Amino acid sequence: MRPELHDDAAAPHWRALERLYASAPVNTLFESRLEVLGEGHARILFDVTPHVFHAAGAAHGTIYFKMLDDAAFYAANTLVTDRFLLTTSFNLHFTRPITGGRVVAEGRWLSGRRRVLVAESRLVDESGEEVGRGTGTFQRSRIALSGLAGYAPGSSPE
């Protein structure tokens, strides 16, 4: 359940970001859900199942990257209401294998508001252990959020 949001003016932008995330075709491959929790704070909830395992029976690194990048990206994009951000770099640290269950990627904006923003994220497994961490830089693109179908007010994630 999402905590009470404190910025009524920003809430429509945050809900639109959630719809945008849900509309991305890649998320049919990695079933997950974005929750924007406030300015500079987002999380992604997902279940790790065997369909994302590598040959040794744990989550492949692509799942770490995708969820960490997405959580940090959306945390940063809460501060940018006109443009889609692009990931320009991302550093990732694997700390433990994920062998299944509910995992949460939590992203937080760190710095920057103009052209380049920096955000971090962490993955926590269902036992509360951190299993990965990342830091990314995100740059404003020329792509207007308002021009993206998934972002439009009233658009449906399905």
UniProtKB/TrEMBL annotation:
InterPro entries: HotDog_dom_sf, PAAI_dom, Thioestr_dom. Keywords: Hydrolase. SUPFAM superfamilies: Thioesterase/thiol ester dehydrase-isomerase. Residues 57-130 form the Thioesterase domain. Coiled coil: none annotated. NCBIfam families: unchar_dom_1 (TIGR00369). This is PaaI family thioesterase.
